[in-house]
Design a protein that fits this description.
The protein is α/β, with parallel strands linked by helices. The chain has helices at residues 7-19, 28-40, 99-116, 136-142, 145-148, 202-220, 259-280, 299-313, 331-337, 368-382, and strands spanning 44-47, 54-60, 66-72, 121-128, 153-160, 168-169, 174-176, 179-187, 191-192, 227-236, 243-244, 247-256, 283-292, 295-296, 318-319, 340-346. It folds into two domains: 4-176 and 294-382, Zn peptidases (Aminopeptidase, 3-Layer(aba) Sandwich), CATH 3.40.630; 179-292, 2-Layer Sandwich (Alpha-Beta Plaits), CATH 3.30.70.360. The protein contains ten helices and 16 strands. The two termini are 24 Å apart. The protein binds nickel (II) ion (NI).
């Protein structure tokens, strides 16, 4: 069996998934397609984890080693701007992050491994829902993913526009940042705009706080650590021009690569909220919510992936110098439970240089069999017989 021989079929599969995108937790059709594909290749299928999650289990020989490979299945609430024949059939839903390609690559690898069985041990093919915002991986773990399907290590792969097709980027350590959110309520006292001294202006205090929060990254963190704090909302007023409102609301997001940095940012924000509140005689309440944790590869598994890739595409096509991304990824939850490696496969410059989550983005069909080949080589190497 030759993966290249399956190229056209994999492309057709990817186009079908692209044309029928489903949002987080609603990946019913996708889940059906995945389960049916695995079943017809003789792979044991388990459904129901996190609702639409699918796990395929393939054993060969008597080896005790076990590997987990993960793909994500959900699409985004974006109206597709492409006009090609496989464009989304559903207004307002789109595979704008390439999860259609990720699912097709892992299915292609599963089919090949089931037919060739050139490995000794167990592979778990993990198809997760709700990667984009709701932590489908976290829910699968909470519902017993790694107890029911134990693996020694778990691997993930995401396409990366801007990285040349035919190349990969593998990070040792952090790949993606955390994505925390915060809401701040500034509680003042409303007043007539002509008599501000009779109230406590939450708007002025909020404006001071927005400015002060910009000092968190620059003054509270080690300059060698990376973090970004962005204020993305500020609501106040909306009443007549002559009314100072009683309350202002501020919100935003924090990205960092280490838990200690998240702690430092949160405590610096607490300090500033208390101080600015006292200075302005208003009450400021911070609600800081931890989102996806940072995605951090373990060194040994990153080295393993690099070695497999060097054999597949040559050392010169395996980048180790790419900076990590400040975006986030819920594969991070899997990497908190098991060692592993999440890497980027080059998607090429893309149509018009489109990046992920753009209405004109599309997964690059030319890399489908390359990605599937990586999964196959990785599995065959990880589960090499004694
Ligand atoms: Ni994605």
């Amino acid at each position: 069996m030759n993966l290249e021989a399956n190229r056209e079929r994999l492309i057709a599969l990817r186009h079908d998934l692209h044309a029928h995108p489903e949002l987080a937790w609603q990946e019913q059709r996708t889940s059906d397609v995945v389960a049916a594909f695995l079943e017809t290749r003789g792979i044991e299928v388990h459904r129901g984890l996190a609702g639409t999650g699918v796990v395929g289990v393939l054993r060969n020989g008597g080896g005790a080693k076990r590997i987990g490979l993960r793909a994500d299945m959900d699409a985004l609430p974006i109206h597709e701007g492409n006009a090609f024949p496989h464009r989304s059939r559903h207004d307002g839903r789109m595979h704008a992050c390439g999860h259609d390609g990720h699912t097709a690559m892992l299915l292609g690898a599963a089919e090949y491994l089931a037919a060739t069985r050139n490995f000794d041990g167990t592979v778990a093919f993990i198809f997760q829902p709700a990667e984009e915002a709701d932590g489908g991986a976290r829910v699968m773990i909470e519902q017993g993913l790694f107890e029911r399907f134990p693996v020694d290590a778990v691997f993930g792969m995401h396409n990366w526009p801007g990285l040349a097709a035919g190349t990969f980027a593998v990070h040792s350590g952090p790949v993606m940042a955390c994505a925390d959110q915060f809401d701040i309520v500034v509680k003042g006292h409303g007043a007539h705009a002509a008599m501000p001294h009779q109230g406590r202006d939450p708007l002025l205090a909020g404006a001071a706080l927005v400015q002060a929060l910009q000092s968190v990254v620059s003054r509270s963190l080690d300059p060698l650590d990376s973090a970004v704090l962005s204020i993305t909302r500020f609501f106040a007023g909306g009443e007549p021009y002559n009314v100072i409102p009683a309350e202002a609301r501020i919100g935003g997001t924090v990205r960092a690569f280490r838990g200690e940095v998240q702690d430092q940012v949160e405590s610096a924000m607490e300090r500033l909220c208390a101080g600015i509140g006292a200075a302005h005689g208003v009450q400021i309440v911070l609600e800081y919510r931890r989102g996806y944790p940072p995605t951090v590869n373990t060194a040994a598994e990153a080295a393993f992936s690099r070695q497999v890739l060097a054999g597949l595409v040559g050392n010169e096509n395996v980048r180790t110098d790419a900076p990590p991304s400040m975006g986030a990824e819920d594969f991070s939850y899997m990497l908190r439970e098991r060692p592993g490696c999440y890497l980027w496969i080059g998607n090429g410059p893309g149509e018009g240089g489109c990046m992920l989550h753009n209405a004109h983005y599309d997964f690059n069909d030319a890399i489908l069999t390359l990605g599937a080949s990586y999964w196959v080589r990785l599995t065959e190497t990880w589960l090499a017989g004694a």
